[in-house]
Amino acid sequence: MKICFGSIGGEGRLDTVASTTNTVPAPPCDRVVALGLHADRGAGSLAEYADRARIAGQACERGYDALKPGQQ
Predict the structure, then answer these.
(1) Which of 4, 5, 45, 47 makes an SS bond possible with 29, Cβ 3.0 to 4.6 Å?
(2) Which CB contacts under 8 angstroms, 24+ apart, belong to 35-41?
(3) Which residues pair with 2 in a beta bridge?
(4) What is the DSSP code (8-state) at residue 4?
(5) In angstroms, what CA-CA distances link 2 with 12, 25, 46, 57?
């Protein structure tokens, strides 16, 4: 079930739309969905960056550990 809150109507009332079918969502719902998708893509990009940084950091640690005196 999709519940969307529309814009303020012509007489200053809030028009609401509740739909249980696959109808076209109201424009404010489109904006919320687009914002959610944008945030999801951003979170995915951030996670990829964090993974690359972790892998690079672990490689750096292994290299440092291999060069430390007394380590074999």
Answers:
(1) 4
(2) none
(3) 19
(4) E
(5) 24, 8, 29, 44
Alpha-carbon distances, residue 49 vs 25, 43, 46, 58, 62 (angstroms): 34, 10, 5, 14, 20
Tokens of 25: 């969502």
Overall pTM > 0.70? no
| Identity at 20, one-letter amino acid code | T
User: Quick one: pLDDT at residue 45?
Assistant: 94
Domain locations in the chain as residue ranges: 2-67
| Pair type for strands 2-8 and 14-19 | antiparallel
